[in-house]
Write a structure and sequence with these properties.
The chain is of the alpha+beta class. The chain has 4 helices and 14 strands. The protein has one domain: Alpha-Beta Complex (tt1808, chain A). Helices cover about 25% and strands about 35% of the residues.
């Protein structure tokens, strides 16, 4: 019988700073390779749009990875983008975000699609992250999920060339032409 080692935040914090992207998923270490060009260009474009919208309205903070979201002592994730609304700013500290951000955004890479669509969807729901966006650069879609009764319901989709707004940024019209990098 094999005994599974359950890592803690302290174990995670002691990992080497070697350029890899580490996360803890309920005590299990997850390591993903560096993202590719399309991922990073999409991330940059979306980050600028969200950051400017939130800053101009004084709604809170929008930050890119790497930013630790310490959901508990056994679960530490680094969403590609996090938004913490002003009313919840107290969860932001020296170690990172200690608790559920208002919005977690994951930009899918070839190596992270299953993790982002299954494991992280379940983790974010379990730890009561109110909103979760899954950004798929090859498909040119953003799926918005809103937490309701402990699980995510689809709350909107951006696809095609038509601008759309997604919760929790209902007054922001996302223009697909500004998000997706030229291929």
């Amino acid at each position: 019988m094999t005994t599974r080692v359950r890592l803690t935040y302290e174990d995670y914090a002691a990992l080497p700073d070697d350029g890899r992207r580490y996360e803890l998923h309920e005590g299990e270490l997850s390591v993903t390779p560096s993202p590719g060009l399309r991922h990073q260009a999409t991330l940059r474009n979306l980050l600028v749009i969200l950051h400017d919208h939130v800053r101009d309205r004084g709604l809170g903070e929008v930050l890119p990875a790497p930013m630790d979201c310490i959901l508990d002592n056994f679960t530490v994730v680094q969403p590609d983008i996090v938004f913490v609304e002003t009313a919840r700013r107290s969860i932001m500290g020296e170690r990172g975000i200690e608790g559920a951000p208002t919005l977690a955004v994951e930009v899918i890479s070839p190596s992270t699609g299953a993790i982002d669509r299954r494991r992280k969807l379940q983790l974010y729901a379990r730890y009561a992250v109110p909103y979760y966006w899954i950004v798929d650069p090859p498909a040119r879609t953003i799926e918005a999920h809103a937490l309701a009764h402990g699980r995510y319901d689809e709350a909107g989709v951006l696809s095609g060339a038509t601008p759309a707004s997604l919760p929790p940024c209902g007054d922001l019209m996302l223009d697909p032409g500004e998000i997706w990098p030229a291929t």
